[in-house]
Amino acid sequence: MEDKQGLVKEAGLLANSFKHINAWLVEKFMAMGLNEYSSNLVRIALLVVLMIILSWAANYVVKKFIIRVLDAFFKKTKSKYDDYLVKRKVFHKLSHLAPAVVILLMTGVIFYDYPRFSTFLTNVVFVYIVFVFVSSVNAFFRAVDDVYNTFDFANERPIKGYIQVAQIIMYSVAVLISVSILFGINMAAIFTGLGAVAAVILLIFKDTILGLVAGVQLTANNMVKIGDWISMPSHNADGTVLEITLNTVKVQNWDKTITTIPTYALVTNSFSNWRGMEESGGRRIKRHINLDMQSVKFCDSRMLEKFRKIAYLSGYIDKKQKELQEYNKANNFDDSVLVNGRRMTNLGVFRKYLEQYLWHHPKIHKEMTFLVRHLQPTEKGIPVEIYVFCKDQEWAKYEAVQADIFDHILAVLPEFELSVFQFPTGNDLKRLGDME
């Protein structure tokens, strides 16, 4: 209490000192032959120049000395977090308060003969101070976001959207305070009036509100985070998430273009997040090749003897042939008729070869789904599908492994007397014409 009274007393003494200076200046100018009105105008002009000089000096001293000392101090500390305050120029923005304080202190003294102008100028300075404070807090929020992003969990739980909400609220309150200061309106009356235009405000900030709700859902349910690979065909997005903000999610596609998706669209529409694939340790290979059904046949002794020489099939052929012979003998099937009993086919042996080939492939994951299967035959032949997982998840390496596998498949098919189905080409039709 005593401190407050002391400050008031000092402020009163300062004001009295300025009044004495004003009276002394007017007397001096009148002594030089000017009338009272002209003397007062010259006094105001001189003090305005002095105010400008003092404002500039205050700004210069604060920026060149105080701010430099603070920046140097924070850069030398062991903690790296306070470096972000320097990076975002929090104290630099606060330094703009120095000239405002000088103007605020001198306005009432200089323009005491013009109370309305003095009040207006004081209000303008107060509005300026409000926005300097808002700008400084905004820089502080950005520094907080920078510090938060240094932690490992920042990608999973980004706070940029929440910071943007805080910034919107802060700027809205600053505008309301400025209106209250400039027009002398009570803040309670302003908030009462806002109720009448709530519907308009909701319409204006519709995307912001939807983005805020969507951001909370995305974060709470861990649906997407920075660095995830997502695919969203409805928005032509297929790539890595770069940034998640209050209103938008930025995705860098594989062709290096940037797609901007409304945040709420990730909640209202479907999208694929490939994070599960990346965390699983394998990337799926699901591709089939169509075989000509007319090339499928029973294996004769010549074919079986040939297959025994294949490294991956030698043990299988002997074991399978013994199993079939015992089965046919137990059921008294006549072996002279091919349709009697069970027999190996070139397609079945080829399928077993593919299983063994893939099992011994160093890039195929053995502990994840592993299938070589037939699909429903169509007018394009019988599809033989490979459903396995590649250990290399990187796109280029994954495609190379997949291409090597199917290069091999196409090359070995003739060894099993199987042929690939494809539509007739120009050369096929030419050969047909030559035969005629």
Describe this structure as you would to a colleague.
The protein has 436 residues and is of the alpha+beta class. Helix content is 60%, strand content 11%. The chain starts with a helix and ends with a helix. The protein contains 17 helices and eight strands. The longest helix is centred in the N-terminal third of the chain and has 41 residues, at 36-76. The protein has a five-stranded antiparallel sheet with strand order 4-3-2-1-5. Strands 6-8-7 form a three-stranded antiparallel sheet. The chain folds into three domains: 2-216, no CATH class; 224-273, SH3 type barrels (Roll), CATH 2.30.30.60; 283-435, Alpha-Beta Plaits (2-Layer Sandwich). The chain is rod-shaped and about 140 Å long. The chain has helices spanning 2-31, 36-76, 83-87, 90-94, 97-110, 115-148, 160-183, 187-196, 198-204, 206-220, 265-268, 275-280, 301-308, 314-330, 346-359, 395-412, 426-435, and strands spanning 229-232, 237-244, 248-253, 258-262, 272-273, 283-291, 371-374, 382-390. Helix 5 runs antiparallel to helix 6 and helix 6 runs antiparallel to helix 7. The model is unreliable at 1-12 (pLDDT under 50).
Put the structure in a nutshell:
It is built from 17 helices and eight strands.
Strand content: 5-15%
- Secondary-structure class: alpha+beta
What is the string of helix and strand elements?
HHHHHHHHHHEEEEHEHEHHHEEHH
Euclidean distance between termini CA atoms: 117 Å
**Which segments are poorly predicted (pLDDT under 50) over 5 or more consecutive residues?**
1-12
Number of domains: 3
Q: What's the oligomerization state?
A: single chain
Share of residues in helices = 55-70%
Query: How large, in whole angstroms, is the Cα Rg?
Result: 41 Å
* Number of continuous helical runs: 17
Give a count of the beta strands, DSSP E runs of length 2 or more. Answer: 8
Averaged pLDDT: 81
Largest sheet data:
5 strands, antiparallel
> What is the overall shape?
rod-shaped
| Strand order across the largest sheet | 4-3-2-1-5
